[in-house]
Amino acid sequence: MAELTHKILIVEDDMIISLVVENMIKKLGHELIGKAASGEDAIELAKEYKPDIILMDIRLKGEMDGIEAINQIKQHIDTNVIYLTGNSDKTNYDRAKATKCIDLISKPFTIGELTRSLELVPE
């Protein structure tokens, strides 16, 4: 059985972390369809490219955070979300869970943790 390849959008405002995540995704054989550093850019890219999965940081540049961006994206497309976060406090965790995310990974994370989260995505 061939591995399922997902179209993935990375939303991360830290360029170094963004590159690390991009390398992990490519190493796992997935297709990177774009990267955004703000919620506003993420919404535009998601509407245009309709990713299968969005890897979303909660804290972003700009006015909105990642959870708010996902709420807006889900008004336009049906997509899977995995949050990547440096602050997994209860408030953000509850807000993230309310968006019906697949998983929430705390930074720093390994390629193994990312793989496990990606395996939770329904086909």
Notes on the structure:
By secondary structure, this protein is of the alpha/beta class. It contains five helices and five strands. It has helices spanning 15-27, 39-49, 66-73, 90-97, 111-119; strands at residues 7-11, 31-36, 53-57, 80-85, 103-106. It has a five-stranded parallel sheet, sandwiched between helices. Helix 4 links the parallel strand 4 and strand 5 (103-106). Helix 2 (39-49) packs parallel to helix 3. The longest helix has 13 residues, at 15-27. The chain is globular and about 35 Å long. 31% of the residues are buried. The model has no long low-confidence stretch (mean pLDDT 94).
Short descriptors:
single chain, 123 residues, alpha/beta, five-stranded parallel sheet, 5 helices, 40% helix, globular
Can I get a quick summary?
By secondary structure, this protein is α/β, with parallel strands linked by helices.
